[in-house]
Specification:
about 425 residues; TIM Barrel; M1 Pyruvate Kinase, Domain 3; Pyruvate Kinase, Chain: A, domain 1; 16 helices; 19 strands
């Protein structure tokens, strides 16, 4: 939602739903909110060059800037800064250290110099800003895309759990919320943010601006592992195949980077500029697909996924049945795990276990089927509502054959909850024949 008007988003939505109809299978749609953008004001000359050791001021004076000062039109940001705070400009290319702070201005020393120009982005890595994650534009966009019918909403500028709670109150259950982890404060408060989010997105590009770059791989692994242990979808995003914006083939380092995210257990890897504005969008998707396929067929991938989350303190009946389904599927001659689910909870629990066999998520709700498209290992299908568990096993037999997961006579693991129409009550596991 950072680019284009609502009309363009509506046309894109319609195109995806038309493709969904042609393919005959659900497609999930995620709307990415722009979030708060902190930018400096404008300069009388358009730009200035800051040199190491210079003194430079950010203030609330709206007049055009010069070599000594510029407006920072966010008074609440100025009040949050203090002596020693770091200010980054232009994606971290310029670095300043606050020497004196007041409610109307901050005086800084230039630590890393460079050219500063009109409305360049400003990052404040070591400050918890007293700002909502939602701008006025975000609130308008949120209402528009929820009414449109998107399945997931990506929330930018998340710093604390309260940001997610605020967004979900506005969403009112019309979509699931993915929290974008792109600020150091979000890493610090990650446990709380994860607890109230439906999924998370690791935005390495922005994290690499506000964190020392050498920390990003460690933080990425930490965030993915935490999300996986919680059974919540995690996307690794930005700068995945960056060179393919202008080249038909990626660098070997980029291929390794994508594979690493998959080896870590990410549910999804995400392209951005490569497909949004790059010269080789189809090639980029093909490369990403090929890397994912090659990585997941590596026996070492299965070994890594077999390592279960260490914290099983909340292991209830539903979790135990999901774990049992994975154990049976991995050890016996099982072709697929079939989950009958209302809200998606049963399928999420099984996917969390990363079984070696495919997972079929059967649901009577088109919305649930679309939302589950983001989750690792799930093939979701829309079926008629089951009145009893026997109906669920019939669906499993028919659908597993229809999608090619099993042949007639193959054994399947079928899970569901009884009463069958209740959500989040996985309590039955049965072996059935396809």
């Amino acid at each position: 939602m950072s680019h284009g008007e609502h009309e363009a988003a509506e046309q894109m939505y319609a195109s995806i739903r038309a493709a969904e109809e042609i393919l005959g299978r659900p497609i999930g749609i995620l709307a990415d909110l722009q979030g708060i953008k902190i930018r400096c004001g404008v300069f009388a000359k358009g730009s200035e060059t800051l040199r190491v050791g210079d003194t430079f001021r950010f203030d609330i004076d709206p007049t055009e800037g010069d070599a000594h000062r510029v407006c920072l039109p966010h008074p609440e940001v100025l009040t949050a800064l203090k002596s020693g705070s770091v200010i980054l400009v232009n994606d971290g290319k310029i670095r300043l250290s606050v020497r004196h702070a007041s409610e109307s201005h901050v005086d800084c020393e230039v630590v890393v110099g460079g050219e500063i120009s009109n409305r360049k982005g400003v990052n404040l890595p070591d400050v918890l800003l007293p700002l909502s994650a939602l701008s006025d534009k975000d609130r308008r966009d949120l209402e528009f895309v929820c009414n449109l019918g998107v399945d997931w909403l990506a929330l930018s500028f998340v710093q604390r759990p309260e940001d997610v709670i605020e967004a979900k109150a506005l969403v009112k259950g019309r979509a699931l919320v993915v929290s974008k982890i792109e600020k150091p404060a979000a890493v610090t408060n990650f446990d709380g943010i994860l607890g109230v989010s439906d999924g998370v997105m690791v935005v390495r590009g922005d994290l690499g601006v506000e964190l020392p770059v050498q920390e990003v791989p460690r933080v990425q692994k930490f965030l993915v592992a935490k999300a996986r242990a919680a059974g919540k979808p995690v996307i690794v995003a930005t700068q995945m195949l960056e060179s393919m914006i202008e080249a038909p083939v990626p660098t070997r380092a980029e291929v390794s980077d994508v594979a690493t995210a998959i080896y870590d257990g990410a549910d999804a890897v995400m392209l951005s500029a490569e497909t949004a504005s790059g010269s080789f969008p189809v090639e980029a998707v093909k490369v990403m697909t090929a890397v994912a396929h090659e990585t997941e067929t590596d026996p070492r991938y299965a070994d890594l996924m077999s390592i279960r989350p260490a914290d099983d303190s909340e292991l209830d009946t539903s979790h135990a049945i999901a774990a049992a389904a994975r154990e049976i599927a991995d050890r016996a001659r099982i072709s697929a795990i079939c989950c009958f689910t209302q809200s998606g909870t049963t399928a999420l629990l099984v996917a969390r276990e990363k079984p070696s066999k495919p997972i079929l998520a059967m649901t009577p709700h088109e919305t649930t089927a679309r939302r589950l498209c983001l989750v690792w290992g799930l093939r979701s299908v829309v079926v008629a509502q089951a009145d009893r568990f026997k109906d669920a096993t019939t669906h499993a037999s028919e659908q597993s054959r229809a999608v090619g997961f099993a042949k007639a006579g193959d054994e399947l693991v079928v899970t569901a909850g009884v009463p069958i129409e209740d959500s989040g009550s996985t309590n039955i596991l049965r072996i059935a024949l396809a």
